Amino acid sequence: MNNRELIEKLNKEHHLEREEWVQLFATFTEEDRKMAAEIAREIAVRNFGKDIYFRGIVEFTNICKNDCKYCGIRKSNVNVARYRLNLEQIMACCAAGYENGFRTFVLQGGEDAWFTDERMCEIIAKIKESYPDCAVTLSLGERSRESYAKMFEAGADRYLLRHETADEAHYEYLHPSAMKLSNRMQCLKALKEIGYQTGCGLMVGSPGQSPETLAKDMLFIEEFQPQMIGMGPFLPHKDTPFRDEAKGSVKLTLFLLALCRIMLPFVLLPSTTALGTADNDGRKQGVLHGCNVIMPNLSPEDVRKNYMLYDNKAGTNLTAKEGIQIVREEMEEIGYHVVVGRGDFRKGKNNNENSNS
């Protein structure tokens, strides 16, 4: 089959074989990307209208026990001013977000042992008590199944844990030896079994990535059936071993986003900050390739410069009000509109029904 036929097959069957994925990623053209974008956009509009959901990210700690080779807050980076937000600061972020229409709060941080299960459950419960109409999404990395269960019982709704790559050798290249792909996959399995709306994802163009590793990613995503996919281009950070690596391709990222929308028509698919950093029109282009979620930053302005996973991160100088206003204007420019609401995953009525809604 040629690439056009493969994209049509994906649209019809929501599945490609490994060698078909490899062919697509190794040989896709601009025409292929545009075709995938058109199909993905039509699917997203059919299932969600032109509604864009927004989530407020609260980056509450930049302390991390891990030493991932791509990450600006890796343990070995001595140039980072480390911080932790306390409960009052986190609640102030949520208050500012709620006032500006945010109905999902994303608590994102490094793997910081100070934030025990007890402390995290206190934070989650306080947010849910104060804003019962809001969802709480967590992005805290790898924890025990017991920890995930306690936080779910405290009121957490969603969990985003990027798998980064489904290829074991590639995973080892990106991470320190103490980290194992098998554990990452077990965490994802546990999250879904507990009942979280669960997200996985990857960096497009990360060092060592190939059409073969991307094929494994797509096969894993199809099998796992996530409710969310977090995907953006790899962007280097000056204080990491990958400082001199080229940034990931925006066009390949957009192609992958479109293919994910075609494969999983009802998935929650963010147009990421990394995409907006890599290209000024990146967030708009993400929506035009099937994305339906935007995630502005609610973190205190004085700590944002210290939560730099990659260099030159977009939006670090905007208040909550300014951030959402810019998103509203960007979406209106392309005929979409930001809606106030939790924007939960909802199961679709087609042959590719996601489970665990």
Can you characterise this structure?
It is built from 14 helices and nine strands. With 357 residues, it is α/β, with parallel strands linked by helices. The strands form two sheets. It has a six-stranded parallel sheet with strand order 2-3-4-5-6-7. It has a three-stranded parallel sheet with strand order 8-1-9. β2 (56-61), α4 and β3 form a beta-alpha-beta unit.
Write the layout of secondary structure elements.
Layout: H1 3-13, H2 18-27, H3 30-48, E1 51-54, E2 56-61, H4 87-99, E3 104-109, H5 117-130, E4 135-139, H6 145-154, E5 158-160, H7 168-174, H8 181-194, E6 197-204, H9 211-224, E7 228-233, H10 250-263, H11 273-278, H12 282-288, E8 293-294, H13 301-304, H14 320-333, E9 337-339
Parallel strand pairs: 1-8, 1-9, 2-3, 3-4, 4-5, 5-6, 6-7
Distance between the termini: 35 Å
Shape: globular
Biggest sheet: strands, sense, closure?
Answer: 6 strands, parallel
- Order of strands, widest sheet: 2-3-4-5-6-7
Uncertain residue ranges:
349-357
The portion of residues assigned to helices is 40-55%
Strand content: 5-15%
Mean pLDDT: 93
How many strand elements? 9
Please give a handful of descriptors for the protein shown.
357 residues; alpha/beta; six-stranded parallel beta sheet; three-stranded parallel beta sheet; 14 helices; globular; disordered C terminus
What can be said about this structure in brief?
This protein has helices at 3-13, 18-27, 30-48, 87-99, 117-130, 145-154, 168-174, 181-194, 211-224, 250-263, 273-278, 282-288, 301-304, 320-333; strands spanning 51-54, 56-61, 104-109, 135-139, 158-160, 197-204, 228-233, 293-294, 337-339.
